[in-house]
Amino acid sequence: MIRLEGIRTYVVGWIVQRKEGAERWKGNVVPFVDNELKKIGREACQFDIVLNGYMAFHVAYHEGTNYTIDLNKGTCVCGQLEISGIPYKYATRCLLYFNCRLEDYTSSYCSIEMSKAMYMEVMFPIVDEKLWPKFQWPLLDRTLRTFKRGPTTKERKRGQRN
Q1: Per-residue pLDDT tens for 137-146?
Q2: How far apart are the first and last CA of the chain?
Q3: Helix boundaries (H) for the chain
């Protein structure tokens, strides 16, 4: 019990630190995602794009790899846009073509509001065992007796000889 309370105390301290850190964050997305978006934005310049329709693109990489992106549906051939919630290099190149803010196309799970809400929960301490309510188990009725299913041991042994 003491060990469990020690673990709870450690986890609560960690949650409080993370919550206080989240209070100082500025912007729309968490700092890690913001740094990733900046890095991806710098790397996105190496792609050539062709507009196929409204918000639909054909993206070509210099090594000969081609990607199809539909920003209306929020889909990409590589699947990175749907899985991570962060626009990958190909989609970023298309968003920069329209001068869109990358933060607007990230998942809501990357937002600061979602992170703050995650750390708002409270872990209450475990009450000492002496203060637990006393519980009296009801006496079992021995008349209701269950029997084992299947053949008895004697029948199994006879069946093996045949």
Answers
A1: 777 666 666 6
A2: 57
A3: 2-23, 31-43, 80-84, 89-97, 112-118, 153-161
